[in-house]
TrEMBL record:
The gene is Mogat2. It is a multi-pass membrane protein. It is found in: Endoplasmic reticulum membrane. GO terms for cellular component: endoplasmic reticulum membrane. The lineage of its organism: Eukaryota, Metazoa, Chordata, Craniata, Vertebrata. This is MOGT2 acyltransferase. It comes from the Eukaryota. GO terms for molecular function: 2-acylglycerol O-acyltransferase activity; diacylglycerol O-acyltransferase activity.
Length: 244
């Protein structure tokens, strides 16, 4: 975990996390555990990661998830965190969601973000600064069966996602005792870079134009964050973020 700016513990923040990857391993490790020393890097900040509401219907697993700071991905839960007057709360949203997982494969930098603006509207309604975060190596943990848009596999995956709310990427990596095949992730590093906060002016009912302006600024900041740090994490110079 790497920070590029200080976060004021008297304020709440909304972090957009990219990319989702197959299992969102980087998001979980950084914001739900102390594996990367979050509390040392951001003292006074309590992280909360949003997860599909579906998982909170499973007894015992729900309690385990909540103990790690995970909250349901609905507007009420998000607003509850962001409107806390004492500040010191960080709400992390994996903006691309389950659908983006279907494009997660090594060397891919495609983000489902062009028309995802709900998190921006939420930030404006609460006057909460937006913070872009990019996780280098997130897509390198697994290989995925080829599923280009328009293929029969992609259509089935999209159909199942609409029914169940979760996507089903056909991924594989290594086994426990061999590297040929299995579902254990490859031993590849993940480094999540947290960008600087983007100030947002509070407005209860922002117009579409106001949301679009902040959204475009967010895209620009995320692109700059990626370009500035990609060489450090062995990303080819000719690789750039693609927003779809």
């Amino acid at each position: 975990l790497e920070k590029t700016a200080e976060l004021d513990p008297r304020q709440n923040y909304l972090v957009g996390f990219h990319p989702h990857g197959v299992l969102a391993a980087g998001a979980f490790l950084n914001f739900c555990t102390e594996a990367t020393g979050f509390s040392t890097l951001f003292p006074g900040i309590t992280p909360h990661l949003m997860m599909l509401s579906l998982w909170f219907r499973i007894p015992f697993f729900r309690d385990y998830a909540m103990s790690g700071g995970l909250i349901a991905s609905d507007k009420e839960s998000a607003s509850y965190v962001l409107r806390k007057p004492e500040g010191g709360n960080l709400l992390a949203i994996i903006v691309g969601g389950a659908q983006e997982a279907l494009d997660a494969r090594p060397g891919s930098f495609t983000l489902l973000l062009k028309n995802r603006k709900g998190f921006v509207r939420l930030a404006i309604q609460h006057g909460t600064p937006l913070v872009p975060a990019f996780s280098f190596g997130e897509n390198d943990l697994f290989d995925q069966v080829n599923n280009p848009k328009g293929s029969w596999l992609r259509r089935i995956q999209h159909f199942l996602q609409q029914i169940m709310g979760i996507s089903l990427p056909l991924f594989h990596a290594r086994g426990i005792f061999q590297y040929s095949f299995g579902v254990i992730p490859y031993r590849r590093p993940i480094c999540t870079v947290v960008g600087k906060p983007i100030p947002v002016q509070k407005k209860e009912k922002p117009s579409e134009e106001e949301v679009d302006q902040v959204h475009q600024k967010y895209l620009n900041e995320l692109s700059q964050l990626f370009e500035k740090h990609k060489a450090k994490y062995n990303v080819p110079e000719d690789s750039h973020l693609e927003f779809i």
